[in-house]
DNA sequence: AGGTTGCATCAACGAATGTCAATACAGGCC
DNA sequence: GGCCTGTATTGACATTCGTTGATGCAACCT
């Protein structure tokens, strides 16, 4: 279940120029758009924040489904999209399925969007 | 033309908790989803990066339209969505219309997505 | 005034998306 | 085995989205 056809953001994207650095080429724009589209739904944003803010790191689907006024298949569908975007992963343990956040893609997006210095760069520059 | 019905991200959202801090409430999730949806299209991402990466700060529509294999109304439509998301603004000067980036919303999104320390927090902590 | 150029809006179309009921699958329990 | 519970998948539907040609509007130029 953990293996999807994701790999949405490739290896070579680890060192991504931010939005204000240079115009995006078509390929990278398509990659990024896929992830942003996954974030472009309030239900998925709430699901992601539920998962990412969990200190233990894992959230059971049985906990998320009743938190919304939506059917169980709908929640399952949204979780699948978050997985395909590389934002979360999951594992079945017995009857239940647990989800956790993958911070890498989130941090890549944050770095891409930020128009200011990154933490590391700032520390070096102001030292 | 600069006045839209935007105000997508309200004043009270200036100090936004990041995704890994706490579960999002419905209202804020809807606000953020609107902006992420605006970023969820490769054409809009390329338009935004063209605008944001321009050193002079402004880009004429007459420069952007021929950069895509799309009709002029389509580009105009995407630029309108970027404006409504609060990501860019524009002004007519004579025959031409110029667009520029509004970094505030971008930085808010970056802060929301980042699972690591922000620049300011890191500087303070490591001083 | 009339003509031209740059950009926005309108109306319409096919494609993608969000949702649900029904169904299928996986694992525990009797 | 059979039953039950939790989750994923399927099929269908209404809505939204991306795109275009046609049209409208604003500003410049004779």
From TrEMBL, chains A, B:
One matching Pfam family, short form?
HTH_5
**InterPro entries from the xrefs?**
ArsR-like_HTH, HTH_ArsR_DNA-bd_dom, HTH_MetalResp_TranReg, WH-like_DNA-bd_sf, WH_DNA-bd_sf
**Any idea which UniProt keywords this protein has?**
DNA-binding, Transcription, Transcription regulation
Q: Which GO terms describe its molecular function?
A: DNA binding; DNA-binding transcription factor activity
Identify the residues that the record assigns to the HTH arsR-type domain, covering every copy.
24-121
Question: Origin organism of this chain?
Answer: Streptomyces lucensis JCM 4490
Q: Which PROSITE patterns match?
A: HTH_ARSR_2
Protein's name according to its UniProt entry:
Transcriptional regulator
